[in-house]
Design a protein that fits this description.
Length: 291
Amino acid sequence: MQLTENENVLLEFISQNVASGKRVYELLMLRQFLNYGELRKKEIEDELRSEYHIELSEESYRSSLNVLSGGFMNTQSEKKKYADINIVEYQAGRTFSRLYAYNQGVKQIPFYQQMSDLIQLGLRRYQDIYSVNQDEMGLSLYQKYSRKDVCRILNWERDDSSTVYGYKIKNGTCPIFVTYEKKDDIASSTKYEDVFLANNLFSWMTRSRVSLDSDETQKLIHYRENGLKILLFIKKSDGEGSDFYYMGTVEPIHWEQTEISNDDGKKLPIMNFHLQLACSVREDIYHYFVE
């Protein structure tokens, strides 16, 4: 029996947004929706403690429901394509889903089986890959993440990947995305000198036109007082695709305002930070970037 257009769209949505296994919460919610038609939060919390040894925060709970209900999407093409996914519905204080209907009767078996397989694939990938060396941010050291993945895992309410522009301070977090080897044909004002000084120390440049007095500079300098979590992601070149290796959390230990020239030779202010890595970079990963 062929799948309907709506079934294919639902499967594609899960495949594109959840089945990678980079976060486990949505997968457990989906399995409950598919098997019971409703969300049983306490059962999810108990399973997370017993099977994965993690706690479900209220922020992560709301974020996961937001992803499954389509609220995380931030492009018109996605919103149009997945407008009728109807995974999560709310009624009289109850969270439920029509996915349960696909578990009833012979006609719906092909969709149910494929959805179940996607969930199991995601759970296995999480268990084998992304639960290893996972930190308090829900990120696994040296695994690869896209900007969109990071926005989701950090519980941002929207996919802001198109506006990160190298880094972004939001909701008490600041993910930094670095391409280690810059292209020759990019603008002079974006040829930042980002480089490892040692396997536990990284020299990083902000965007141009950022000075010592800039608001974002002050937030980075005073990260302890404001509780800002700074996270470093690196890929060697654009030829690697859109994913970055997660290098862990970092702390600014030195900073200074300097200058960078644009294509017209005009000097622009820019901040240089020395970032201390919480975990020294594994030898093979370190040599991959610096050699």
